[in-house]
Amino acid sequence: MTTTAPSPLPPRAVRRCAHPLNLFHASVYFSPEYAEELAAAGVKDPHAAYFAGRAAALGAVGAGAVTGTFYNFSHDLVARHLPAVWESASPADALAARLRAADRTVRRLLGDAADSAAMAEAAELALRASKACTRHARPLYAAHADLPVPDAPHLAYWHAATLLREHRGDAHFAALLTSGLDPLESLVAHGATSAGASTTWVLASRGWARADWDSAVERLRGRGLLDGEGALTEAGAALREEVEDLTDRMDTAPYAHLGEAGVARLTELARGFLATAAEAGAFPAGLTGRR
User: Helix, strand, or coil here: 232?
Assistant: First the structure.
């Protein structure tokens, strides 16, 4: 059932623009600079560092809040690090460390492009789009929306990408709930697509055991969403597309506010920056692929 007005933009324009923005934002969490800055702030464990940096905008929250808002992490993993991480670094410390990491990472990955006119243009477009984001029922976006916009264009662009990523992410989790996909089932279903992360990486980063994964596979097979080889069936592919379509509809506002020409230009710039970052080694080997 359609719960929002149709998009005034071309089909999939929202998705095409959001994708490179999301990955550009996420590249900072994969960087050695992020680990170094969080370690300098007192958080040396990689899982704790990720939770601290991404959750810090919410304040000194406990495991329940992070499990609920991050959606697809094992609660046991989250609870091993929260709220204890705030004894090592305050939310303000974690946010400052994350921004320093973003500065160093973007400059390393993009080189001179970090200070280019194109970067300033992309920052302006992404920030303009973010003005139409809404806080209600979007906890991670709402928390980040209260943070100040950095002055430097490359950091303003990364900040705007963060806002747009969390705005879409909050909507995506609502779409997954609507579809009846629980946290691990959503990871399995996404992993069965060409864009999915590898099983090995998901298990290591999200804190699930192989037995948990296998149980989720069997549940999806029982619903006719996966075949015997672990690939999406026609029904599974249709459900995945329904999830993405619903996410697009709930995420239309910032891109509609920017307008068709603005979205096309931001997509072009975002793809260019992402391609440069990826060529510079922004993402680890073994991140994608069915294994």
Answer: strand
pLDDT tens-digit series, residues 134-160:
999 999 999 999 999 999 999 999 999
Name the residue range of residue 78's domain: 13-279
The DSSP annotation for 154-205 comes to HHHHHHHHHHHHHHHHHHHHHHHHHHT--HHHHHHHHHTSTTPBPHHHHHHH
Locus of tokens 């900040």: 159
The residue with tokens 């303003």 is 156
The verdict on residue 95 lying in a domain is yes
Q: What is the dihedral of CA 69, 166, 290, 194, to 10 degrees?
A: 140
In a domain, 291, yes or no: no
The reported pTM is 0.94
Whether 20 maps to a domain, the answer reads yes
Question: How do residues 222-266 score in pLDDT, each as one tens digit?
Answer: 999 999 999 999 999 999 999 999 999 999 999 999 999 999 999
DSSP string, 52-76: HHHHGGG-S--HHHHHHHH-SS-HH
Domain count, the chain: 1
Tell me, yes or no, whether 5 lies in a domain. no
Question: Taking the alpha carbons of 112, 26, 248, 244 in that order, is the dihedral positive or negative?
Answer: positive
CA angle, residues 214, 215, 220, in degrees to nearest 5? 95
